[in-house]
Amino acid sequence: xxxxxxxxxxxxxxxxxxxxxxxxxxxxxMETYNKKDMEEAGLxxxxxxxNQSSSSKGVLxxxxxxxxxxxxKLVRVVKGKVFDVAVDLRGGSGTYGKWFxxxxxxxxxxxxxxxxxxxxxxxxxxxxxxxCYKCTDFYHxxxxxxxxxxxxxxxxxxxxxxxxxxYRGSADASGYTMADGTPLNLSDxxxxxxxxxxxxxxx
Length: 203
Prior knowledge:
This protein has 2 helices and 13 strands. With 203 residues, the protein is mainly beta. The termini are far apart.
């Protein structure tokens, strides 16, 4: 059993992973992680922690990164649908500041691997989304950094998944909505992050 399809993304280090799904009239079975299959695909990361969150439609979490203890993340959705985004923050990278996004859902069962050195976030497109991810390092309190989700320098195309609104110079979500009118919902903290240039002035 096993077998996975691994697709390289336009930004080096990002991968979309599709597991083999075995279904019949009773339902389906799949391996959500197989160390041997991953290693055969050239993915040798070691995971030490699993996390799960539940969010309602319109919730946007991010863009988050770790400052001193970076985490690689293998993310997937077990219920609902999200638009998942990674932003390259690796110093010296030819794609520094560039982003890549993909839809993850319970239907497509895709997984997205985001290595150390990236900011990460997602927006919930369904009524509810249950989001699972494996991490290559433990959570360290106080180590989280962030970027404005709507920073025009990064230029994430949130409109492609129906998120619209007018940028007013900050990460404030006021006035932003989903395609059906659901207001965008960010934590207070996520509405205070600065853009790329102000966050990394030394770059």
